[in-house]
Amino acid sequence: MPQFFHAQQFRKLTLGLLLLALPGFAQTRIQGKVTFATDQSALPGINVLIKGSTTGTTTNADGIYEIQGGEEAVLVVSGIGYLTQEIPVKRRSQVNVQLSDDTRQLNELVVVGYGTQKKRDLTGSVSSLDAKDFNKGVQTSVDQLIAGHSPGVQVTQSSAEPGGGVTIRIRGANSINANNEPLYVIDGLPINNTSVVPSSTVVSEPAARNPLNALNPNDIESVEILKDASATAIYGSRGANGVILITTKKGVKGKLNVNYALSAGISEVTRRVPMLNAKQYIGLLNDLRADQKQAPEFSAEQIAQIGDGTYWQDQIFKTGSVQNHQLSFSGGQDKFNYYASLNYLDQKGVVISSGIKKYVGRVNLNYTDEKFKFGLSLNSSNVKDDFVPNGVSVNESAGVINTAIFQDPTLTIKNPNGTWTQTQIVNLENPVGLANEVSDFATTNRTFASIFAEYYFLPELSAKINFGTDRQDSRRDIFTSRLTKRAEGTKGVANVLTSNSYNNLIELTARYSKAINKNNKLEILGGYTFQEFETSTLTAGAQNFPLDALGTDNLSAGAQNTFSLGSGRTKNQLLSYLGRINYNLLDKYLLTASIRADGSSRFGDNKKYGFFPSVAVGWRIKDEVFLKNVNALTDLKFRASYGVTGNQDIGSYKSLVLLGPQGQAIFDGTPYVGISTTQLPNPDLKWETTTQLDLGIDFGILENRLTGSIDYFHKQTKDLLLQLPVPRTTGFTTTFKNVGGLKNSGFELGLTSINITAPFTWRTSANFSTIKNEVTDLGDLPFILGGSAGFTNDFTIIRKGDPLNSYYGYVVDGVFQNGENIGASAQPLSRPGEYRYRDVNGDGAINSQDRTILGSPFPKFTYGLNNDFTYGPFNLSFFFQGVQGSQMFNLNRTESENPISFRRNRLLETYTDRWTPTNPTNQNSSAIPVAVAYTSNVNSRAVETASYLRLKTLQLTYNFPTAKWKHVRNVQVYVTGQNLFTITKYTGYDPEVSAFGTSNVRADYNAFPLSRTYTAGLSINF
Questions:
Q1: Which of 35, 323, 527, 612 has its CA 20 to 30 A from that of 879?
Q2: Which stretches make up the TonB-dependent receptor-like beta-barrel domain (predicted)?
Q3: In degrees, to the nearest 5, what angle opens at C-alpha 1018 toward C-alphas 1017 and 1022?
Q4: In 3D, which of 690, 861, 617, 687 has the Cα closest to residue 243?
Q5: What pLDDT score was predicted for residue 1001?
Q6: CB of 210 within 8 A of CB of 519?
Q7: CA 240 to chain centre
Q8: Rounded to whole angstroms, how far apart are CA atoms 364 and 336?
């Protein structure tokens, strides 16, 4: 579909919105008095506005107001702590108003596990977000909606590719090998939170896909994030990483409401990695040759022929585009309501051959009467991904982005005959050719649905049955043309990979809720659940095709001796019993206790069931006599909780003896594949267990003009799943066991303030959280090294007393200068201009014993700040997000300073400020290959500060006055900017990305660059 507008049109639209004029009305004087409905006392400082205009005033000390407005105007009367009223003037000159207390904030319902609770009665740590809190602009998934808005919840865009994966850590990382992502529950259905897009050994795993791409963010009503054990223990062996409850929109009583929303925009790369251009590249290589007393790499004639060369990053980057269409219908009657929506999203990335298309449909139906409730939630989607070709085991592990960084800039894009230019000097692809000649597409169809029925035997006693299903089918087609270096020897490579998964749920719950008397309230929940997961895969491949045009459409056209075939299937089940008690005494003293028993097929025969209890107490101290008359304090509640949760997401069959193919034998001329055991059993294998203490305070000040919460948490995880060595006499080298521990602790602060209410409103929300992660136990293992990308291995360490997956390598202490006593140093064979490394253990030699902790992937603290300004029909909002104190391993730097090939390109600073006898810098080396390699290329120069402050969204909205527009309820236009700027010292594309997706190992390699996006939108309600 065509792009909707260009940058110039976008700027014109923005200017036009700022110059919109309001329609005029015949003005008359309106006056009146505003009083409190309970005792008729006058209310000073109450805001009185003419709806849809910028005209407003406030009441005086006697509650009197006076305002100019049209005869058919509508007064909007509001004040902090009071319910807002909208009153039609109807040609009156005297309009008196009575306001009532606004207790909605404390009485509003918050979704919790298997039910809802009043906010005032919560004893657990729960963040509740709705439309006013969500990130603005184009968001392809629910994770992106909530990023940065909840303390203790770190949402990281692990890939900026359209539809790319998002990593969420709620109060730190709890596991080494098991999944660290939270459990997602959509309308009561716990879903599979991993993507089913199959991976390939031919083209590496695409940047992690977001499992929630199948959900339309515009359909989301609210998101609740359960953080402490009191809130998550009801989910038992899946609650250790926190739980995200997603509630979709429902219809409301009234006539049909039709909404159409359109947004369209453009994107651009926020920055490029500064590399040498052709002239600088030639200069550097010739200088390096001269320094080594060798002939120049390029002659004067070659330099003249090369000219300006090619800046490859400019060739693979483009202006991206996005368009998003949303059509929804909602309404209802006394007992029945409905909501239905259709969504189409088309986003093309800022790198050629990248994008996503989504088609999503939803239907929600609900029926309620005195005895019976019924609900249906159905979501179906078709998602088409166009992947950027990534790294593989050939071509020096480089994908499109990596080759654009390091490819020789003296090459042209194409040869004179029109073929892609290739070089044998550097074993890298032509990045433009790679992007065009490798097709990598995936189509995923996903449907998840839930249906429930609840019957009330008595007003206080009900039983509920809930069925749910989540089905996904994905096919990925990869074809590598013979015009690439990857496939020039194989005459084309084709692979088709399919994956099918399902998740079925049945729940039976009963609830008893009774106000025993005015001082005692009791609610009891009990239930049974059963959930089953199954995934099957099928892969096929072929090579040596007669022509490229066949692609993956006819694998049989390849050479038979190249055919490959594979399949697999995994299945697991979860059987659970749960119970919870909520007790409220005097509406001041609150108690919540829960327990869940989980039986999982993933556990060993001796450990099939795990038990996960929790208890929490709350004290509404504001309702005590000694604080009731403290008018400045609107609300004050203390919370404390302690509980046990688990993590059973360790993969299937880890406790069992596994059989697999092993070798081949020939009998009577017939080949037979052998079968042998591939894994030792462990009947005692069980879930990882996390205990958590939470202490919290919720408060409201000055009639809730300032509200917030403060929490301290301490999480201890034990029985981590690790692969441990076993005697070779067993026939194996390792087996899975429960060994090891982790600790996470920190503070969280969330604040919301209403700063100004007239003549315009200004609302601020802010959050701040700290995190400290530490490995507490590894059993008999002294440490575990990990991390592998490109030409670099073992750049992280897991060791007792350190943060999980800390960066581990050598400290650079400067550069050897002329005249220094190199022979007496720990690097006696080094030369001037080479890096000096720190002798950490002081033994006079640089070796592997001198490696040390270089940094942590965990930030010291994260923060977010959102501001909303409203003036008449205009609204301006902006949101800043920040991370402080984390590091990132930048493999671009290691590959630039330790190139595998002399002809690979280098970072710009390598040339502009490299060490020479006339430029004795202590920052950069001479770039001449070292005489003796004392270390690996994992050093403190490559582990960079990844702190940043980002203006994540900025949006200006205009609401047209529609009082006289027939059949039109609301018309809104807006312009939005996303990722407008980032303040950081990090030298890569983005300090937030990671090549390892949802893994705790973080590194920047082949990272899809962050994009700056501008969108304009229109929303119409009929």
A1: 323
A2: 446-980
A3: 155
A4: 690
A5: 87
A6: no
A7: 18
A8: 11
pLDDT score, position 396: 60
Output the pLDDT for position 38: 63
Give the chain's end-to-end CA distance (angstroms, integer): 26
Rounded to whole angstroms, how far apart are CA atoms 483 and 157? 33
Look at residue 44 in the predicted model and tell me its pLDDT.
77
Please tell me the distance from the alpha carbon of residue 904 to that of residue 144, in angstroms, as a whole number: 36
Q: Could you write out the three-class secondary structure of 148-161?
A: CCCCCEEEEECCCC
Grouped pLDDT means (10 residues each) for the chain, 1022 residues: 44 43 56 79 79 77 84 80 80 85 65 89 91 82 86 86 86 89 93 69 52 89 94 94 94 88 95 93 93 90 87 96 95 92 96 94 95 95 89 62 93 93 89 93 94 95 96 93 88 93 96 91 96 94 92 94 92 96 95 96 91 96 89 92 92 84 82 83 90 96 91 96 78 82 96 86 94 93 86 91 96 92 92 95 94 95 94 91 94 89 90 91 92 90 95 92 76 94 94 81 86 94 88
- Total-model pTM: 0.88
Closest alpha carbon to 944 in 834, 881, 1011, 857: 857
Identify the CA nearest to 113 among candidates 39, 184, 15: 184
| DSSP states of 285-325 | HHHHHHHTT---SS-HHHHHHHTT---HHHHHB--EEEEEE
Rounded distance, CA 123 to CA 119, Å?
Answer: 9
Residue 180, H or E segment: none
Q: What is the pLDDT of residues 263-285, one digit of tens each?
A: 999 999 999 999 999 999 999 99
Q: Name the 3-class secondary structure at 402.
A: helix
What's residue 200's pLDDT? 57
List the one residue out of 937, 953, 960, 736 whose CA is nearest residue 865: 953
Judge whether 705 and 80 are in contact, CB under 8 Å. Answer: yes
The 3-class SS string of 415-467 reads CCCCCECCCCCCCCCCHHHHHHHEEEEEEEEEEEEEEEEEEEEECCEEEEEEE
Both tokens of residue 983?
Answer: 């303040």
DSSP string covering 314-347, please? HHHB--EEEEEEEEEEEEE-SSEEEEEEEEEEEE
Bridge partners for 691 per DSSP: 644, 716
CB-based contact 429:395 (threshold 8 Å): yes
844: left (phi over 0), alpha (psi -120 to 50) or beta: left
Classify each residue of 855-866 as buried b or exposed e, where b means 16 or more C-beta atoms within 10 Å of its C-beta: bbbbbebbbbbb
The pLDDT of residue 803? 96
Cis peptide before 832 (omega within 30 of 0): no
Cα 197 to its chain centre, rounded Å, is 17
Alpha carbon of residue 945 to chain centroid: 21
Q: Which residue has the tokens 């590091």?
A: 887
CA 433 to each of CA 319, 369, 403, 494: distance values in angstroms, whole numbers, following the listed order: 19, 64, 11, 17
| Closest of 762, 713, 742 to residue 804, by C-alpha | 742
Helix, strand, coil proportions of the chain in percent (round to 5)?
10, 50, 40
Measuring CA to CA, which residue among 425, 272, 259, 436 is closest to residue 343? 259
Q: Which residue has the tokens 């040869």?
A: 415
Residue 688's nearest CA partner among 735, 649, 656 is 649
Please compute, for residue 904, the number of CA atoms within 13 A of its CA located in the half-sphere on the CB side.
Answer: 25
CA dist., res. 285 & res. 425, Å (int): 14
Residue 16 has what pLDDT?
44
CA separation (Å) from 773 to 99, 799, 836, 900? 50, 12, 31, 35
